[in-house]
Design brief:
101 residues, mainly alpha
């Protein structure tokens, strides 16, 4: 019996899989220099294939991804309380005027 097309996943081979094919295992072992062409393809050693952690980006990584400067000077300039000071200064004279009337 076949699987209905609405239940099939797209890119099924691109997702994380716990079991790798022999060719994938050989590629990883070659990269780690644990296998060469003179050895047999049977009885290969185990290969750790860990799933990469997928989670929320940190603020620094999000800033780098957006292309903005993530330097400490830029971060300090972005968080200065200048607008808050202007709001407080604007409110203070308004209260004094209200008291004079």
């Amino acid at each position: 019996m076949s699987v209905h097309r609405s239940l099939k996943t797209k890119n099924a081979l691109e997702r994380h899989r716990n079991v790798l094919s022999r060719a994938e295992r050989l590629k990883i072992l070659k990269d780690q220099e644990r296998w060469d062409e003179t050895k047999s393809v049977f009885g290969l050693p185990k290969v750790a294939h860990r799933k990469a952690a997928v989670g929320a980006k940190t603020k620094k990584a999000a800033a780098e991804a957006a292309g903005t400067a993530a330097s400490p000077e830029a971060a300090a300039g972005a968080t200065t309380p200048a607008p808050e000071a202007a709001k407080g200064a604007a409110k203070a004279p308004a209260k004094k005027e209200a008291g004079k009337k």
